[in-house]
Amino acid sequence: MKFVIENPTASAAQFFRRAGYIFQKREGEEMAFVRRLTDQPFPRLHLFVKIVGFQFHVNFHIDHKKASYEGQNMHSGEYGEDSKLLQEEMERLKSVASD
Fold first, then answer.
1. For residue range 70-90, what is the model confidence (pLDDT) as tens digits?
2. Are 35 and 45 contacting, i.e. CB atoms less than 8 angstroms apart?
3. CB-based burial of residue 26 (10 Å sphere; 0-12 exposed, 13-18 middle, 19+ buried)?
4. Which of 3, 1, 14 is nearest to 99 (CA)?
């Protein structure tokens, strides 16, 4: 699922930390962040952020479990706009941006 946060008032690292995410890694122009949904490593929200001008372009999904095969990064995930949890998280992040 993709969306844009307009005119954030903090750096990407500060903003997503305030929203409960942990910085995972940088991949080219994108930064990856994760937020656990339970006290276990999975399921978790996994998002990629690209800074374009004064906007955060966010692409995120739910990782339901760790990759099943060594050397693979494919996993069971939820990506679509029909996911209630993803919709709610998008709205939560937009509300954090407006605080």
1. 555 555 565 677 789 999 999
2. yes
3. exposed
4. 14
Which two tokens mark 60? 């995120």
Could you tell me the sign of the dihedral formed by the alpha carbons of 93, 45, 80, 10, in that order? Answer: positive
pLDDT band at 98 (very low <50, low <70, confident <90, very high): confident
> What ranges do the domains of the chain cover?
2-98
For 11-48, the pLDDT digits (tens) are 999 999 999 999 999 999 999 999 999 999 999 999 99
DSSP state of 42: -
The answer to which of 4-8, 28-32, 72-76, 91-95 has the lowest mean pLDDT is 72-76
Enter the tokens of residue 71: 């050397």
Domain 2-98 CATH class label: alpha beta
Burial code of 15-25, b = ≥16 C-beta within 10 A, e = fewer? Answer: bbeebebeeee
